[in-house]
Write a structure and sequence with these properties.
Elements (H helix, E strand, L loop, with lengths): L2 H17 L4 H27 L11 H22 L3 H37 L8
Helix pairs in contact: 1-3, 2-3
Length: 131
């Protein structure tokens, strides 16, 4: 992730800390709860973009949904930074773990296809389409 993003997160956290009237423990909990608020705003924007409330009709755009998703990301990064001064490292390690896990899940069907092809070759038949 761009180091400029983490610099911005650090500035946001410092500003929020300066403005806070809560204890550090309460502030941490409130920043975690902020995520729920922002996710709710994504839901409201999706409902508004699809016109799912017949009383209100279409009240949002998909661009509004994008902006609300960004607010979720910002809130999550601020919450993470509030929990640890080493947020950038924690995030990078978790991203690497998710990428590795994702790569591993992609290789399972490929391995099954290779095994089927090998078995078919040994049996002298065409390999079945594993897709």
């Amino acid at each position: 992730m761009d180091s400029r993003i983490w610099e911005s997160v650090d500035h946001l956290v410092a500003w929020l800390d300066e403005q806070s009237t809560q204890s550090p423990q309460e502030e941490r909990l409130l920043r975690l709860l902020k995520l729920s608020e922002e996710v709710g705003e994504v839901g409201a924007a999706v409902i508004g973009a699809t016109g799912q409330n017949p009383r209100k009709g279409v009240t949002h755009s998909w661009e509004d949904v994008q902006h609300e998703l960004c607010d979720v990301v910002f809130s999550a990064l601020v919450a993470l930074r509030t929990l640890t001064p080493d947020a950038a490292r924690v995030f990078a390690e978790r991203l690497a773990y998710v990428e590795q896990r994702s790569a591993a899940s992609r290789s399972v069907p490929e391995a099954a296809e290779r095994a089927a092809a090998k078995a078919a070759k040994a049996a002298g038949t065409a390999a079945p389409d594993a897709r």
